[in-house]
């Protein structure tokens, strides 16, 4: 099934306006997952995204090694998991399962791939909501259309894969995160009260980022970045996407430049930087 999904995914990605090139790693030459992504995407902005199709359980330490090596090379990572490896919707599972590390590395929205009855590949969102100190409940989300490829930096607080990584997803550029999918029950226990604090090593289910946090993320910076770093990041990114110099299509360059300017202006406003 992986080969079928690879070719389907490439066909979806090459139609995106921000994708310059998309290549597939042949299954016969694929080596260690940390070195050989299943699909490699190059955007017009020069961003490289490695997409890994996971068709077997992987230890969190290996997942961390993948994003660690990719981030060190300036490459963004996106994981897609074979739906057959995941629990059924509504099923309660221990809160230490390997796929919860993928969930954390996907900003609490795991992409699962599967074949429809007509053997056409598709993606759907999967989420996990805490129901006790030691268990989470699997939640099946809507089918995902590959209409955008977004790249960003994100701080992951889940112990086994903790770090500040370069990641990617299929969310619209305007969305700071996939807040619309996360069910309200994901932040409460069955009796309606607040969830218990996670034990050491258990996944943290944080609320969606604020506009300020999303603005920092758009500039590729943590929320505690210094004023000088914010200014430098904005100038560098703005130069890359400015309509007068960017190699992007004019409409996309203008949209990206506008979003960067709005994020920078909002940070300055909140921080009261003149």
Fold blueprint:
Elements: H1 2-13, E1 19-24, E2 39-43, E3 48-54, H2 60-72, E4 76-82, E5 92-94, H3 99-105, E6 110-115, E7 121-130, E8 135-144, E9 150-156, E10 163-169, H4 211-218, H5 227-241, H6 250-271
Parallel strand pairs: 3-4, 4-6
Antiparallel strand pairs: 1-2, 2-3, 5-8, 6-7, 7-8, 9-10
Overview of this protein structure:
The protein has helices at 2-13, 60-72, 99-105, 211-218, 227-241, 250-271; strands spanning 19-24, 39-43, 48-54, 76-82, 92-94, 110-115, 121-130, 135-144, 150-156, 163-169. Strand 6 and strand 7 form a beta hairpin. The protein is of the alpha+beta class and 274 residues long. Helices cover 28% and strands 25% of the residues. It has 6 helices and 10 strands. It is globular. The protein has 2 domains: 2-207, no CATH class; 216-271, DnaJ domain (Helix Hairpins), CATH 1.10.287. The strands form 2 sheets. Strands 1-2-3-4-6-7-8-5 form an 8-stranded mixed β-sheet. Strands 9-10 form a two-stranded antiparallel sheet.
Task: List its traits.
274 residues; alpha+beta; Helix Hairpins; 6 helices
Q: Residue ranges: pLDDT <50 for 5 or more in a row?
A: 28-34, 175-208
For the secondary structure, the number of strands is: 10
What's the helix-strand series? HEEEHEEHEEEEEHHH
Main beta sheet, described? Answer: 8 strands, mixed
Strand order of the largest sheet: 1-2-3-4-6-7-8-5
Report the C-alpha radius of gyration, rounded: 19 Å
N-C termini distance? 55 Å
Number of separate structural domains: 2
Helix run count: 6
Q: Which structural category do the helix and sheet elements fall into?
A: alpha+beta
Amount of helix:
25-40%
Silhouette: globular
User: Beta fraction of the residues?
Assistant: 15-25%
What integer is the average pLDDT? 80
């Amino acid at each position: 099934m992986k080969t079928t999904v690879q070719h389907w995914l490439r066909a979806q990605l090459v139609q995106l306006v921000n994708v310059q090139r998309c290549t597939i790693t042949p299954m016969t030459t694929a080596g260690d997952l940390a070195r050989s992504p299943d699909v490699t995407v190059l955007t017009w902005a020069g961003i490289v995204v490695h997409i890994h199709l996971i068709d077997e359980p992987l230890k969190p330490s290996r997942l961390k090694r993948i994003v660690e090596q990719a981030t060190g090379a300036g490459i963004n990572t996106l994981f897609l998991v074979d739906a057959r490896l995941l629990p059924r919707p509504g099923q309660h599972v221990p809160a230490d399962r390997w796929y919860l590390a993928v969930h954390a590395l996907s900003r609490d929205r795991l992409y699962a791939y599967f074949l429809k009855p007509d053997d056409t590949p598709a993606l759907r969102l999967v989420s996990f909501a805490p129901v006790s100190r030691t268990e989470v409940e699997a939640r099946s989300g809507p089918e995902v259309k590959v209409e955008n490829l977004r790249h960003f930096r994100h701080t992951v607080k889940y112990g086994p894969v903790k770090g500040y990584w370069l990641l990617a997803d299929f969310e619209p550029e305007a969305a700071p995160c996939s807040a619309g999918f996360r069910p309200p029950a994901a932040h409460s226990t069955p009796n309606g009260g607040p969830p218990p604090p996670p034990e050491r090593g258990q996944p943290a289910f944080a609320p969606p980022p604020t506009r300020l946090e999303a603005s920092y993320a758009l500039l590729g910076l943590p929320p505690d970045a210094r004023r000088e770093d914010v200014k430098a990041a904005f100038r560098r990114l703005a130069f890359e996407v400015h309509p007068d110099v960017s190699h992007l299509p004019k409409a996309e360059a203008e949209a990206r430049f506008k979003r960067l300017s709005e994020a920078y202006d909002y940070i300055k406003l909140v921080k009261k930087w003149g």
